[in-house]
TrEMBL record:
This is Cryptochrome/photolyase family protein. Residues 3-132 form the Photolyase/cryptochrome alpha/beta domain. Coiled coil: none annotated. The keyword Acyltransferase does not apply.
Length: 454
């Protein structure tokens, strides 16, 4: 009698370069895929609306891919430990495999479940799959976590090179019939009242096949101009791979080795490849920071920043920022792009975040939460990490006195106004809700409280 293997999919919705899936196949028993929508375990952050939209379509794609290869994806909702144990009991599973997660609550869930299943005689193994370097392997000379990116990345690159990605299996032998599970539509991940996802449908096609196609398209057609044009939001020079990495439709190992191979040699192409790969390094640094500081989304990484005197919230200012109605064209264009597509160009993310925290003097946590709800690529590390970087409270943070002037940013990176004309052509006719010079001065004065608290 067989004892099937369960592969517990999480933020790794792919078949290629999936070490947990490979382990299950090597075990030689039928394989059952499982995804758990966990909104109950302690500390697990519920997904935002745009993320739920992406998840629905990526799960549908993964289910199709498994079915085409002979297996099934079982969907269950609830606390992960209970859901996994329930499926183990239902099918008499002899092994459970997953790829590791690095957030504090997620690690706690995984560790407790691993111990419990092993005590019941079930084989359980976890694997490195979703970062290039496990967070505990990159350490300073004194064995402490890094707080500055450049030495972190230098140390990481001195470690053994990231492993080669595993091939995608042609077959995934499963059970004759799928175990009981939820219907994806019953999870109601898609917006209906109202359906605000039209722009997301126009912009994105979730799923592993589309992710691999986009990686190839970027490397073949756009990599050569990446270094020169990546800061221009109208240039179309960025990879658009961030949601693919967030949901694990591509592994960072796949992206890394494809970038190294394509960017070999010298000249502009090699320079662009090096710059692109360093952005993977920035993602690694975010996960490194979250692993060592699990409260990244709710607490200042720099504790001295707790002294910052955030004024009483002006709800009208927050709403104007969220809706892209500030009267500041670059800010409004970015916020409207975000609402329509679930995405925003990285340069504009910095501009809009700086405007919220340093011109409107609104706590970075409110902006982080808005991005969490509206970005298709918001993950538990990069989203709060980047917000704290802009706010000045995070690891290797931008100095607080570096306040992005949205008008100068538009002149430099959107000189012909193409991006602003696309997303906020009416914004220039509006009266700005704040004076940029006066609010910059007020922000610098408020920061004096942080300096005095050192």
């Amino acid at each position: 009698m067989s004892s099937p293997s369960i592969v517990w999919f999480r933020d790794d919705l792919r078949l290629a370069d999936h070490p947990a899936l490979r382990a299950a196949l090597d075990r030689g028993e039928p394989v059952v895929g499982l995804y758990v929508l966990d909104e109950e375990s302690a500390g697990i952050r519920p997904l935002g609306g745009a993320a739920r939209w992406w998840l629905h379509h990526s799960l549908a794609s993964l289910a199709d891919d498994l079915r085409a290869r002979g297996s099934h994806l079982v969907l269950r909702r609830g606390a992960a430990a209970s859901a996994v144990r329930s499926l183990v009991d239902d099918i008499g599973a002899g092994a459970v495999y997953w790829n590791r997660r690095y957030g504090g609550p997620e690690r706690a869930v995984d560790a407790e479940l691993k111990d419990g299943l092993r005590s019941d005689g079930v084989e359980v193994e976890s694997f490195a799959a979703n970062v290039l370097f496990e967070p505990w392997t990159v350490k300073t000379g004194s064995g402490t976590p890094f707080s500055v990116f450049t030495p972190f990345w230098n140390a990481a690159r001195n470690l053994p090179a990231p492993r080669e990605p595993l091939p995608r299996p042609d077959e995934v032998p499963g059970l004759r019939s799928s175990p009981a599970g939820d219907d994806l539509d019953d999870w109601e991940l898609l917006p209906t009242r109202p359906d605000w996802a039209g722009g997301l449908r126009e912009r994105w096609q979730p799923g592993e096949a589309a992710a691999r196609a986009r990686l190839r398209e970027f490397l073949d057609d756009d990599l050569g101009t990446y270094d020169a044009a990546r800061d221009e939001p109208s240039a179309g020079a960025t990879s658009l791979l961030s949601p693919r990495l967030r949901w694990g439709e591509l592994s960072p190992h796949t992206v890394w080795h494809a970038g190294v191979e394509t960017g070999g040699g010298t000249g502009a192409h090699a320079t662009s490849a090096s710059r692109f790969l360093s952005e993977l390094g920035w993602r690694e640094f975010a996960w490194h920071t979250l692993y060592h500081f699990p409260d990244l989304a709710t607490k200042n990484w720099r504790r001295g920043f707790d002294a910052f005197p955030w004024p009483a919230l002006d709800p009208a200012h927050l709403t104007a920022w969220e809706k892209g109605e500030t009267g500041v064209p670059m800010v409004d264009a970015g916020m409207r792009e975000l609402w329509h597509t679930g995405y925003m160009h990285n340069r504009v993310r910095m501009v809009t975040a700086s405007f919220l925290t340093k011109n409107l003097l609104i706590d970075w946590r409110l902006g982080e939460q808005w991005f969490w709800d509206t970005l298709v690529d918001a993950d538990g590390a990069s989203n709060p990490f980047n917000w704290q970087w802009v706010a000045g409270s995070g690891a290797d943070a931008s100095p607080y006195f570096r306040i992005f002037n949205p008008e100068r940013q538009a002149e430099k990176f959107d000189p012909r106004g193409l991006y602003i004309d696309q997303w906020a052509p009416d914004s220039a006719a509006r009266e700005p809700i704040v004076d940029l010079a006066a609010t910059r001065k007020a922000a610098l004065q408020a920061y004096e409280a942080v300096k005095r608290a050192r």
